[in-house]
Amino acid sequence: MNPTLSELEAKARRPAAAFGGDAHIVCDNLVRIYKTEGVEVVALQGLDLVIDKGELVAIVGASGSGKSTLLNVLSGLDVPTAGVARVAGMDLLSMSAKDRLRYRRSVVGFIWQQTARNLLPYLTARENVELPMRLAGTPRKGRALELLELLGVASCAGRRTPEMSGGEQQRVAIAVALANSPQLILADEPTGELDSETSEQVFDALRKANRELGVTVTIVTHDPLVSEQVDRTVGIRDGRTSSETLRREGAEGQIIAEEYAVLDRVGRLQLPRDFMNALEMERRVRLELESDHIGVWPAREEPSND
Ligand SMILES: Nc1ncnc2c1ncn2[C@@H]1O[C@H](COP(=O)(O)OP(=O)(O)OP(=O)(O)O)[C@@H](O)[C@H]1O
């Protein structure tokens, strides 16, 4: 039934919901400009991203597209130049130094690509997991072993980093990141230095943290083993989210992956570069509205006057 005039008027009067609503991670028109020796680099150019609580998301993109910049902002290590970045209802742009420290200690856990960067080499695995709890003033007896067990590295509890493989070190690093029960885990190329079998174990540990502890997990990765196993892969191009691949299980248990272009709030979308190249599209395209889709064609050759 068509809405009545008064229903439409009421709808128009309702305040528009804020972008991303109460999602766990909301980036709205996020901009990060680096200035070095007078040269400006726009690493994030109005990036929009919404991630719900409990999601496991991979972020992919070419080198220099802005992935690490985004993770640094979300982890509270870096402050964006403009826009909105909100995690678990906390505004990352206006946060005080004290809140930022608390955020980094207790709300978010971080895993670097370089295994050596995640752990202190002179502490055992168990002591490494206990450290963030001691720093936050909330030591919990048995918690470190519990986490090491959950991630399948309890046998490493008494070992220091040189006595562990790269994959074991990364799984211990995940336990360290989980120590203070964060709401969010961010991992920057966590399997980048590992062979495929070990990568699988590290990814399984992240998936376990997500499924069994309900932690939201965001992984920046070039590793197809990771990006093709998550429910949602977000592609970043030139400092903006440009594509999303959603995966779901089909009727026969097969995984169906569907790729979408991201449409921002003002209607901008990035056409895949290979599509544009194939049809030699540049500068402008012709759009046509059909009943159930919009057609995009290369611009017609204008007849020349000479
Ligand atoms: N501290 C910095 N100072 C100046 N420019 C920077 C800084 N950090 C990043 N950039 C620039 O910002 C852009 C995005 O970099 P970023 O590291 O976020 O990309 P990335 O997608 O993570 O790349 P990679 O996959 O190679 O790690 C690049 O052009 C980079 O040179």
Provide tags for this entry.
306 residues; alpha/beta; Rossmann fold; seven-stranded mixed β-sheet; 10 helices; globular; binds adenosine-5'-triphosphate; transmembrane transporter activity; ATP binding; transport
Can you put this structure into words, describing what you see?
Keywords: ATP-binding, Lipoprotein, Nucleotide-binding, Transport. Residues 25-263 form the ABC transporter domain. The protein is α/β, with parallel strands linked by helices and 306 residues long. 30% of the residues lie in helices and 28% in strands. The chain has a domain at 53-78 and 96-261: Rossmann fold, CATH 3.40.50.300. Strand 12 and strand 13 form a beta hairpin. Helix 5 crosses helix 6 (143-150). The model has no long low-confidence stretch (mean pLDDT 90). The site of adenosine-5'-triphosphate (ATP) has 12 residues, from strand 1, strand 2 and helix 2.
Protein topology:
Layout: H1 5-13, E1 25-36, E2 39-51, E3 56-60, H2 67-74, E4 82-87, E5 90-91, H3 97-107, E6 108-111, H4 115-118, H5 125-135, H6 143-150, H7 166-178, E7 184-188, H8 196-213, E8 216-220, H9 224-227, E9 232-237, E10 240-249, E11 255-261, H10 273-278, E12 285-289, E13 294-298
Helix pairs in contact: 5-6, 5-7, 7-8
The site of adenosine-5'-triphosphate has 12 residues, from β1, β2 and α2.
